[in-house]
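Narrative summary of target 7.
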Amino acid sequence: MTQNCWWLDATAPLSATIRQQAQAHQNQLTKPQGSLGRLESIAIELAAMQHTLKPHIHKAQMLIFAADHGIVAQGVSAFPQSVTIAMLANFVNGGAAVATLCKQQGIQLSVINCGTAERCEHLSQIIHKPIMAGTHDFSQQAAMSYEHMLAALSLGKEHAELAQQQGCDFLMLGEMGIGNTSAASCLSALLLEQDVSDLTGPGTGVEGAALTRKKEILSASVARAQPLINNPLDALQHVGGLEIAAITGAYLRASQLGIPCFVDGFITTAAALLAVKLNPGVRQWLLFAHHSAECGHSALLNALDAEPLLQLGMRLGEGSGAAVAYATVQQALTIHNNMATFAQAAVENKA
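Modeled conformation, tokenized:
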């Protein structure tokens, strides 16, 4: 493996033969073909990923990467940066939405600090791997150095590898960081070559004149960075976030290791698009949990030709949509693996 460009290494293969066999199995179950919609297709995809006709998820993990963003100095968020630390405590104390969902479903939850603005070593249940104390204000300069960006990508890579060592066979990624919808909007605008205003929503609840100002700040930020962007990594360095970089690295490495990844909402989908831009083979290892209410999410999903499982009007982030949709994935596998075939049930199939 070339250390400097490890993300270019080939992703693991899926089994086309097993996919065909899983489709044939679905066609023999006691229902009209296709009548269970996405429940059928997601089970078939997991069969191809796991190279087995009847796939199971034995150990799901949720990794939440947290970091702060210098752009909040421009007033783009309704909440102060101190909320990042407060929410990290809420994650490990079990009070956050994603924490309650993971506990209820037996999903292992890990929280990784990759660069909060304030020190938080007192939160001993968090994995502390700070790369820098939050990004720079990307309306004024690059969000991070090239070296810091590589370190954040590698942090995600390392945690995907650790998850595999712990037996993870289904990976979900979440994020926390006040200001990270701004970073995701600018990153998406550069990757999609679209107007950032069309990809900018309320985030933490910015509305009215404050939302107008947010769009103006982000438009100026993209205009500053645009002449300096020659490739996807340039976009990440200039307007991204440490946690977005880490999530990108995790998607890349998990795909190389053959671990299915369940993509959450707007911010993690921006990271997913970046991962696919860097290594197109990543796309076949991505499953999409839900359609976020954040306005930029549709454009990202379209670019990835993705059809999410759920549409519940969620825009919380933190991996919560993936944790909700995980139950649907398990239900899809239950149907695929346990439903009777026409022959088993002695039900006459259509002519």
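DSSP finds 13 helices and six strands in the chain.
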